[in-house]
């Protein structure tokens, strides 16, 4: 139920079926509240926004309540929709009156969301492009595609509505070239091929995507191994579709070869142990997957000029490759 201030309240009564399907309350709530992440649900719980009027004992997120327990969840009104311009440096590869091409750093979130309302690419773009507000979604003006927080690389941002609509169409019809490179775990990596499946939200973990989701959408990735090393491979990937976490899901779930240091679809601690102390020392406490969007090509939706951009991987990524190559 929604209130006039934008807050919402939900009441759930635990059933026998719920008890059979879920082991923890946070799993149950993330399944019911499809727009909220597990971390956001945890924050609500810590702020006292998740309660029960009839529980026999104090409810806990890590445990599942008894059948018949009522769970009340209050979701506060959303933060202001308009992102704030921030003077954040951008690596700009190209810009005209319609669009801008940037090389996003690993660790930068693309647009504001719960837990990341500042320091995002959108905050930086708003400072650089003063007239971009109102282009597309007001919560993420100019954004037509995204890279994961931990993924570095080339992105295009629209500076006006006509260009935004044109770029959205290019992405929806897959008339755009997107190539990535990564360092993935695994010996005897298949030399190349096609990875195809449906991808949708993971049924038990809202932060993850899965090839087993019944509500998934078609996803297609082409890949080829650039070089096989002892414990890892340097891999190039070309996207035909653009599903959330597509490359990370396809490599980890279809090939069972997760990207090096992927905290969501792999095990970074295990990865570092497997690759040896010298390479582990180079990587240090780096907390992102070694995945880089290296190439973007498309026909400019306004000028109809063919555009093509590339960006080398970040310094640490290249240092790891240099070490693997014995440089």
From TrEMBL:
One example of a Gene Ontology biological process annotation? enzyme-directed rRNA pseudouridine synthesis
Query: Where is the catalytic site?
Result: 148
The record's catalysed reaction(s) read:
a uridine in RNA = a pseudouridine in RNA
Q: Which UniProt keywords apply?
A: Isomerase
Role this protein plays: Responsible for synthesis of pseudouridine from uracil.
Q: Which EC number applies?
A: 5.4.99.-
Gene Ontology molecular function: catalytic activity, acting on RNA; pseudouridine synthase activity; RNA binding
Q: Give the family per the record.
A: Belongs to the pseudouridine synthase RluA family.
Source organism: Halobacteriovorax marinus (strain ATCC BAA-682 / DSM 15412 / SJ) (Bacteriovorax marinus)
Checking Pfam families in the record gives: PseudoU_synth_2
Q: Which domain of life is it from?
A: Bacteria
Q: Where is the Pseudouridine synthase RsuA/RluA-like domain?
A: 98-253
What is the name attached to this protein's record? Pseudouridine synthase
- Broad class of enzyme this protein falls into: isomerase
